[in-house]
Write the structure tokens for this entry.
Amino acid sequence: MPKAGFFYATLKRSIALVGALVIVSWGLEASFRDQFEEPGKGARLRIFDQDPSLDKENGGISTVFIPRKISAGPSDLFIQVVQTSVRPNSNGDFTDYTPKTPEFDSVHTFAVASSVYQMYIQDLWVLSTLFPKSLALKQATKIFDKRKFQILKITPHAGEDQNAYYSREEDGSRVLMFFSFTSEIDKKTKIHTCQSSEVVAHEAGHSFLDLLHPEYFVSQSPQTGGLHEAFGDLTSLFWTLSQPRQCGNVIIDTRGNLHRQNFLAVLAEQFGKEIGLKEGLRNADDDVSLLKVEQEVHEISRVFTGALYDILADAFKAAYQAKKDQQDMTHILADTGVYLRHLFLHSIVESGNFDPTFSNVAFQMLTLAKARANAPKDPLDNLGWPGFIKNQFTRRDVPVALNSRALSFLDHMKVKKAGICGTIHRKFT
Ligand SMILES: [Zn+2]
């Protein structure tokens, strides 16, 4: 059976360029906070909720609102679409374009990528307030406040391939490239990877992680590579939960049982189906163990993503029991998703500049969850997160203990990255 996975670009450059990046961007100081408009202003944009294949079951096309300055392209402080540039209408909105046209695709890809950046940057500010002594969080917020990087340039229709990728070039430029291919099912329908919100969010996730930890991008450790892929898949999942209509549809589809087959867990449905897979490219509700998985970055990422999905399911169950008489199920799921996203992002920020293993990040999550439970400020602090984290990683053979390097022999194996780049790449076994 053909297998497919998201691949991220290999990078042929030296770490020394990180220093050059700072020089290149020197003087571009602009605050994220200054980009927000007064109530009553801001821009409306339209997106595919998931992808064109799910437009009946799960909502289809949504209008989203971004309360920031959005210019032609569309573009903002961090992101710009550089192909089929579109302009806002007289109301400042990007809502006049017809779905499945290149113009709509420009709006859609920008809106998803920009909302991923907004989600994570806002998280960093929330975490900085909760943990004011954290130097790592201070440094992370500085990256975005002083914009020490080049704008992310998006090409929604980069050519023919079963592929999409993020890359940082030798001159420090950062790109997201989305390709198109002909369906292998009917042999005629053109599938555009840019039309999948999950593919866009996955790639935007790679680009965001690359700003936090540029050294991970050149890591040869399979687990660090797997972490990059898991970050992409989890970005898609967290972004979906952050969209109120989609979060509501998850509850409607599953009746609150997240272990039922659902569009939140299945990643890139259209892409998977059109290359002949049963469902999407991957399913986050995955119990595979670190000892059983292939040592390829997308395969190995399933272990980490699966653990976080099950932690989400465990925590949601506990949160529902605690809050069912106070809040509707959709809001409980949305809040649980935000809490886990914060724990995960915070752990990544606090992870050192070495090649982290899954154990290292899991231990970081456990430590932060315990710290929050010991000094609770949020009703969700006491759900039992440390137990969920320990259980879900341990049962996947990821030891959760300080400096655990039980599986460090894997770090010395070369990570398999197909081709020169490509975030989605097909391979046959
Ligand atoms: Zn990827």
